[in-house]
C-alpha cells in the first residue's frame, strides 16, 4: 500500500517530477477505461448491439453528471494545492471541510433528481427505440451510484492537489477489480444473484465504487493522512463563506466547461443516432477507443494543474511556465504513441466491441481515420488550460471552449451534413480542437491569467515568490494540535 502523505511539487527537475506525478493518474485512467471496455465487451458481445447503444447513450449522461460538479472539485483541488505550496496546512483543511459539505449535498440532489428524469433525458437525446428500455434500466442504477462516484472522485482530486497520486490509484484499482468480477455475476445472475441484464452492469459500478470509497476513507483515517480533519476540528466541515464563494465563482465556469463538453457530446450522439444502429454502434465502439487516446492529455492536464497550483502558491512562476512546456511535450509524445496502433490495427481492436462480421467495424475504422487526430490538439488545450486555471483564471478557457464547441464543432457538423453526410460529424472534431488549441496558446502568451487569484483578498503571490536560483526548502513539519487524531480530510475535486 502507498504512503499517505503530501508531496512538494515546487522542487526538483520539472520533467521527471511531472512524469512521476502524472504516471499514477495515467495508470488510473487506463484502469478506468479498461474497466469500461471490459463492461462494453460483456454488453456488446452477449447482450447485443442495442444494449451497446444503450450504454453509450447512458454513459454520455453519466459524463454530464460528473461534469456538472467537476468545477467545484477542481476549485477545491487548486485551493488545496496553493495552500500546500504556500506551506499552510490549516488553510488546506479549511478548504477541504467546506468543499466536502458543499460537494456532498450537491451529489445527493443530483441523484435524487435524476431517477425520475432518466427516461425523459434519454428520449430527448433521440435514443433509438430498440435501445431505450435498456438505456433507462442502466441509467437509473447509475443515478443511484452517483453519490459514491462523486465522493470517490472528490477525495482523489484533493489528494492530487496535495501531491499524492499513488493512493487514489491503488483504490481505483480496487474499483476496477471489484467491477470486473461483479459485472458478469449481476448480468447473468451467477450463483445466488438474480439475472439483471444490462442493469447488472450498472449495478457492478455501484457496488465497486461504494466498497472502494469506504475502504479509502477507512485507510486515510487509519494511516492518519496529513489532511484528514480530526475529531477536534470537525468545525472545519461548517461551510466557510469565503471558500464556498470561491468554489462557486471559480468552480462554476470550470464546471460549465465539462457541462458544455457533455452537452456537445449529447448533441453529436443525437446526430449519429439519426443514421441508425450500425453507425451508432460504430460510434459507441470508437468512443471506447477514444477514452484511451485522450488519457495522456487528461493525466498531464490534471498533473499540470496540481503542479502549477503548488508553484503559484509558492510564487515559483519560472516553474509554472516550465510545467506548461513539459506537459505539452509529454502530450504529443504519449498521445502519438496511442494513435499509431489504432490506425494500424483499428479493425481488429474494434471487433472486440462488436459482433463478428458487423458492418459497424468498418464504419468505426473510418471514423477513427477522420477524427482521431483531434486528440493531439485537444491535449495541448487541456494542458494549457489546466496551467491557466491554476491561478484562478477560469473564464477565458470557458469562452474558448464555448467558441470551439458551439461556434465551430456543432454548427460544422450540423450545417455540412447535407453535403458530407456523417463525415461532417467526424470532421468537426479535429477542426474544433485545432481552433481551441490556437486560442489557448494565444491567451497563455498574451492574456493576464497570471494576475488572477482564487480567493478574494489573497496576498500577491509575486510578493512571496521564491527566487528561481534559490532552491525551495522542504516544508517544515506541521505541529499537530491533536497528535492522536492527526490526519487529513481527503475529500475533493473531480
TrEMBL record:
It comes from the Bacteria. Keywords: Cell membrane, Membrane, Transmembrane, Transmembrane helix, Transport. It is a multi-pass membrane protein. InterPro entries: MATE_fam, MdtK-like, Membrane_Transporter-Flippase. It is found in: Cell inner membrane. The chain crosses the membrane at residues 12-31, 61-84, 96-117, 137-157, 169-190, 196-220, 255-277, 289-309, 330-354, 366-384, 391-412, 424-444. Its main location: membrane. Residues 471-494 are annotated as: Disordered. This is MATE family efflux transporter.
